[in-house]
Design a protein that fits this description.
The protein contains nine helices and 20 strands. By secondary structure, it is an alpha/beta fold. The chain has a six-stranded mixed sheet, with helices on both faces. Strands 5-4-8-9 form a four-stranded antiparallel sheet. A three-stranded antiparallel sheet has the order 1-3-6, with no helix packed on it. Helix 1 runs antiparallel to helix 2 and helix 4 packs antiparallel against helix 5. The chain is elongated, with a radius of gyration of 34 Å.
Length: 422
């Protein structure tokens, strides 16, 4: 229970009213009684005015429901006065939870006229890390003209708000190739399939469209022959995330899962901006599954999935890769983002061999989680170097996989631009 403010203006006014009322009856002076009545009437009028108007006042919030980490969002609050009296003092309180200081208090400086609306705005900065948030509710406080009563009303106007991970600028990611410039995707090759370019002819197979029958060759050979077209091959990138609970080190923004998610967002943005197809896969508390797509709409979908990702998965990363093997196209690229050096690399051997036989180009980013705050476990470093890191990196390089090592505090954009040539 809130403490009673004895020195509040209305309490002082009530006390004066009672004193003058007692003095008026005691002295039988009408002037003193009139003064007591005026004081008490002011109290009653102030109470009735503020409490009667409050249910007739509403508020509504307008804001874009998504923003990137670090962005400032303009939030507009519209106050509607449905009463026949103007509102002199209106205070609004809103909660912008992605901000470090979520409580936003605004005082409407001008009177809100009868049966009209008023609009106020405040900036909200997304200082907290990526994730799903709820903005609101809105709280209204009205006051009578004398400021005697301040009734409050909570309006259940909440909205879901998504904070996307920060997009790191990637200019170049050098990988050995024809142009010596990083370009995730399939190898350029002529494959049979469907396009506008003629590739050759072959015998008819069940399911082939009748319109593709090549009648001159059919008549000459005495069997049904169909035309075959060159299949259009596009650049495709698969990003596999380590979202296992066992890989967590650090806290909040400075944790290994946040590093993984930021790099996944940067790589997705980099490839999609160049017209490539991207899919992002992983298993956290729930499966993260953003299938192949391209364009700004697909990027928004990937960022939404990354914002919702919760790194509490129980499935080992080798099992996640094996589960998705059939979804990684021949000749495409795969980037594996490891959140810990405590990975049994030998468990990947069969999957890597299969992918290499299908001409899939493999890349790895290995986060040295021993450089992060150790919360659930502690692993010592020998001469400032993690033994597990040396072993994991050695296995990746022995497998011919270009690998980047990331430590706590590293520039992630620069790290992704330092892939060694192979």
């Amino acid at each position: 229970m809130a403490p009673v403010k004895l020195l509040h203006r209305r309490n002082q006014l009530a006390l004066l009213g009672v004193i003058f009322l007692v003095l008026g009856f005691g002295t039988a002076k009408p002037a003193v009684l009139y003064l007591a009545v005026v004081f008490l009437f002011m109290l009653v009028l102030g109470y009735l005015t503020s409490t009667t108007l409050l249910p007739l006042v509403s508020a509504r919030r307008e804001a874009h429901p998504r923003a990137f980490q670090g962005d400032t969002v303009n939030v507009a609050l519209t106050i509607r006065n449905a009463s026949v009296l103007p509102l002199s003092l209106v205070e609004i309180e809103d909660y912008f939870t992605p901000d470090e200081v979520p409580n936003k208090q605004l005082l409407v400086s001008e009177a809100v006229r009868a049966r009209s609306v008023c609009r106020v705005e405040y900036p909200g900065t997304c200082m907290k890390r990526r994730g799903m948030y709820t903005i609101g509710p809105i709280k209204l406080t009205l006051s009578d003209p004398l400021g005697l009563f301040e009734p409050k009303r909570t309006i259940g106007d909440t909205m879901d708000f998504t904070v996307y991970p920060e997009i790191l600028p990637l200019e170049r990611v050098p990988i050995e190739g024809r142009s010596n410039v990083f370009s995730f995707g399939r190898e350029n090759s002529l494959l049979a399939g469907r396009s506008l370019d003629f590739f050759g002819v072959r015998e008819y197979a069940p399911g082939d469209p009748i319109r593709h029958i090549h009648w001159p060759s059919t008549a000459r050979l005495g069997r049904i022959v169909v035309r075959e077209f060159e299949r259009t091959v596009t650049d495709q990138l698969t990003i596999l995330l380590d979202l296992g609970r066992a890989s967590i080190a650090g806290f909040g923004e400075h944790s290994t899962p946040e590093y993984v998610i930021k790099m996944a967002a940067a790589l997705s943005h980099h490839s999609l901006q160049r017209g490539h197809e991207v899919q992002v896969l992983g298993v956290g508390e729930a499966p993260l599954d953003a299938p192949f797509g391209r364009g700004s709409g697909h990027e928004a979908f990937i960022l939404e999935e990354l914002a919702k990702a919760r790194p509490r998965g129980q499935t080992p990363m080798p099992d996640v890769l094996r589960f998705h093997l059939e979804r990684i196209p021949d000749g495409s690229s795969l980037v594996m983002l490891f959140a810990s050096v405590s990975v049994q690399m030998e468990a990947f051997a069969d999957a890597w061999a299969l992918l290499r036989s299908r001409r899939v180009r493999l890349f790895a980013v290995l986060i040295d989680d021993t450089t992060f705050l150790q919360i659930e476990r502690y692993r010592p470093r020998r001469d400032g170097v993690s033994v597990e890191l040396v072993e994991a990196r050695s296995r990746l390089l022995d497998a011919g996989i270009p690998t980047v090592i990331v430590c706590h505090g590293d520039d992630l954009a620069r790290a992704l631009g330092s892939f060694p040539s192979v």
